[in-house]
Write a structure and sequence with these properties.
By secondary structure, this protein is of the alpha+beta class. The strands form three sheets. A five-stranded mixed β-sheet has the order 5-6-1-7-8. Strands 9-12-10-11 form a four-stranded antiparallel β-sheet, covered by helices on one side. A three-stranded mixed β-sheet has the order 3-2-4. A hairpin with a 6-residue loop joins strand 2 and strand 3. Helix 4 runs antiparallel to helix 5 and helix 10 packs antiparallel against helix 11. The longest helix is centred in the middle third of the chain and has 22 residues. The radius of gyration is 24 Å and the shape is globular. The structure holds a DNA duplex.
Length: 425
DNA sequence: TCTGGGGTCCTAGGACCC
DNA sequence: TCTGGGGTCCTAGGACCC
C-alpha cells in the first residue's frame, strides 16, 4: 500500500555546517556564526548550544565567554550559504514528486510509499545530501506539513533515530505521548503571543491543541490556528508555495557599522540600496510600482527610537536603477533630520508586477535610455565583479565608512575562483 | 564602543460606490 | 433633519517564520 506523504528536510545548524564543510578543524568544536555587522549570534553548533550560547545574543556580550571556551567565530558568508543551499536543494529534488523550498536550509518534498519504504527513503535522502554536499540533514515524514515539521523536530532531538523520523512507522500512542510532552509553542505557527493566550485556556501541549475543537479555535483565534489543529489531526490544509502568488515585495535594509549623521552619507546609502533593489527586481523579472524608504535610530540609545519612513508611488512600473536611486534620495531628503544618529536605512520595493505594463514615455527622451542602464550595469558586474561599477555616490571605489563589518568571514569557497580551496596530496 | 534581515499571511477598519 | 445595506478595494498593523 503506497501513500502520499510530505517530507520536511532541513540542514542541521546550516551556517555552521557550511563552514565546517570547508574547514574540518571546526568539527567537534563549538562554533557560532554572526549576523551582518558581526552584531548577534544567528547560528550555533550543538557544542555552542550546550555551552549556553543563545540565538540573538549580542556578540560583544558573549565574546569573552566564547574566547575562554575556545569557541570559533565566523561572520556570515551569504555567498557561500546561498550556493550550498542550491546544491542541497538540487540533491533533495531527485527524491520527490514535487518540491517546495521553504527557506535557505529547509524544503518540503512530496514522497510516496508504504511505511517501510518511507523510512528507507528518508534515510537515503540524508545519506545523499551528506555525500553530495557534505552537510548533515534531518528528515521528518508525515501526512501534513505541520506534522512533517513535528516529525523533523523529533528526529533532531533523539539521537538514536539517526536524523530520521517517519510518523507512519510509529505507534499512535507513542506519538500521542510525545505530543503531550512537547510544548505547543514548539509547533510551527504557534508563537509566544498565541502560546500565552492558549495557556489561558489550559492548552499547553501539542496534544492539547490537537484535541481542541477546530471551530472554537477559529472563533477565539484565527483561521491560521484552525488550520494547525486540522493539520495536527492529519488533514492537509496549508497550500504549497507554487500555488501561491509571486513575491510581493523586495526589501533591502541594513544596519550600519557606525552611525550615519549627515544627509550626504544617507543619500549615499539610498543610492547604493536602491541599486541593490533594482538588481533584485531585474533578477526576479519584476517591476515595482511603489517605493518606501526608511531610516532608523537605535533602540538601545537613550530616548525614544524612531523609524521614519515614506512611501511614494512610482511614476511608472520600473526596475530602473537610475530612477529608483534618484527617487529614493529625494524621498530621504524629506526624512532626515540633521544631527540625528541613524543606525540603519532601508529601501522597500512593492506593488510588484511581472511586466512593465503600458509605458507612456511622453516627452522625456532620457527615460527611454534609462531602461537599458540596469542591463548594462548587471552585465559589467557579472563580468568584472560587484564593485566594478555603480551609479553616482554608489559608484565609489572605496567602501564607505558605514558599510558592513565582517571581520571573521571565511572565503567564498564555491563562488570565487580566487577563493577555491586548494587540496594537496 | 558593539544589539540581524527578509519575508508571509490574516484581520480590522476606512474610503468609496451603488 | 431624518435615513440602508451590501460590496470592493486598500492600508496598517499584528503574529509568525527562518
Amino acid at each position: 500500500m503506497s501513500t502520499e506523504r510530505i517530507a520536511l528536510i532541513d540542514v542541521n545548524n546550516f551556517y555552521v555546517s557550511c563552514e565546517r564543510a570547508f574547514d574540518p578543524k571546526l568539527v567537534g568544536r563549538p562554533v557560532v556564526v554572526l549576523s551582518n555587522n558581526d552584531g548577534c549570534v544567528v547560528a550555533r553548533s550543538q557544542e555552542a548550544k550546550d555551552l549556553g550560547i543563545t540565538t540573538g545574543a549580542p556578540f560583544f556580550q558573549v565574546k569573552q565567554f566564547m574566547r575562554s571556551h575556545g569557541m570559533a567565530v565566523r561572520s556570515s558568508n551569504y555567498e557561500l550559504y546561498g550556493d550550498m543551499s542550491a546544491r542541497v536543494m538540487e540533491v533533495i529534488s531527485r527524491f520527490g514528486s514535487w518540491q517546495e523550498v521553504y527557506s535557505i536550509d529547509e524544503s518540503f518534498l512530496g514522497v510516496q510509499g508504504n511505511p517501510e519504504q518511507l523510512g528507507e527513503l528518508a534515510t537515503r535522502i540524508r545519506a545523499a545530501v551528506g555525500q553530495g554536499v557534505g552537510v548533515p540533514v534531518c528528515v521528518g515524514v508525515a501526512p501534513t506539513k505541520t506534522l512533517a515539521k513535528f516529525a523533523n523536530h523529533i528526529a533532531k532531538r533523539n539521537e538514536h533515530l539517526n536524523g530520521v523520523c517517519s510518523l507512519d512507522s510509529m505507534d499512535p500512542d507513542v506519538i500521542d505521548g510525545i505530543q503531550s510532552r512537547v510544548p505547543v509553542t514548539d509547533l510551527w505557527g504557534v508563537g509566544g503571543k498565541t502560546g500565552a493566550k492558549l495557556a489561558g485556556l489550559g492548552i499547553t501541549s501539542i496534544a492539547d491543541l490537537k484535541r481542541a475543537e477546530a471551530t472554537e479555535i477559529r472563533k477565539k483565534f484565527s483561521v491560521v490556528l484552525q488550520r494547525t489543529v486540522l493539520e495536527l489531526n492529519g488533514t492537509p490544509c496549508i497550500a504549497h508555495a507554487e500555488e501561491r502568488a509571486d513575491k510581493q515585495q523586495i526589501m533591502y535594509s541594513r544596519s550600519f557599522s557606525s552611525p550615519v549623521t549627515t544627509l550626504e552619507a544617507m543619500l549615499e546609502v539610498m543610492s547604493i540600496y536602491a541599486q541593490r533593489g533594482a538588481a533584485r527586481l531585474m533578477g526576479d523579472g519584476m517591476w515595482a510600482t511603489l517605493l518606501t524608504v526608511s531610516a532608523g535610530t537605535s533602540r538601545f540609545a537613550a530616548g525614544e527610537a524612531s523609524f521614519p519612513a515614506v512611501t511614494l508611488k512610482l511614476p511608472r512600473p520600473t526596475q530602473d536603477p537610475i530612477l529608483l536611486s534618484r527617487l529614493a534620495s529625494a524621498a530621504m531628503r524629506e526624512l532626515v533630520v540633521p544631527g540625528v544618529s541613524y543606525v540603519r536605512g532601508g529601501v522597500v520595493l512593492s506593488g510588484l508586477q511581472p511586466d512593465p505594463g503600458q509605458q507612456s514615455f511622453g516627452i522625456f527622451e532620457d527615460e527611454i535610455s534609462e531602461n537599458h542602464v540596469g542591463d548594462v550595469l548587471g552585465a559589467v558586474k557579472a563580468k568584472f565583479g560587484d564593485k566594478a561599477i555603480g551609479l553616482g555616490l554608489g559608484g565609489l571605489a572605496v567602501e564607505p565608512g558605514w558599510s558592513m563589518k565582517r571581520e571573521h568571514s571565511s572565503p567564498k569557497f564555491t563562488t570565487e575562483w580566487s577563493d577555491l580551496p586548494v587540496v594537496r596530496a
